[in-house]
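Researcher: Please translate sequence to structure tokens.
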Amino acid sequence: MTWPVLYSFRRCPYAMRARLALLASETPCALREVRLAAKPAAMLRASPKGTVPVLVLPDGAVMAESLEIMDWALARHDPLHWRPGTRPDLIARNDGPFKYHLDRYKYTTRYQSDALHHRAEALHILHGLEVALHSAPFLHGAQPGMTDAAIAPFVRQFAATDPDWFATCALPRVQAWLEAFLALPLFARVMARVAPWCEGDAPVLLG
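Model: Translation complete:
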């Protein structure tokens, strides 16, 4: 194994942020796109919990948490200066209450939930993000950083659940921030479509 191997799923926000950090850190990486309904045996051997992302290093070490992958990649090399100014408080709020309400807004059948209640609760959290963006276009200032990359994929998912409604929300800074982040060439690279991986396939490099 020449490079680290990343098991990923294109639309998963956790996998998105791992891919963003790996590309931002210029870490060469073999990408293995996963079918969630038919997870590869090699991925399950590396991480039996069966969720993406999973990063397998050449020495066999395994990372199966997206923030761990981001931290590892950016500690290794940070040419875009993504790490300084990271906001663990905003990331924790995203990964905790915002993700809780996002799931119950987006997947009402799965959770038997009140979509409008959870949408309102998630919106309240986004108003906090609106305040955090009061003085700059990104959470890290003039340029995006790790906090932006860790949060934007989840806000993207929230906005895409009902784009017409989201466009009417009184969140001008959040809306502009999300639009600017999604327009980054780096984001376009992490969202490139890749065929699902099968054992024996030739390596496909991330990005």
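Researcher: Any highlights?
Model: The chain has a mean pLDDT of 97.
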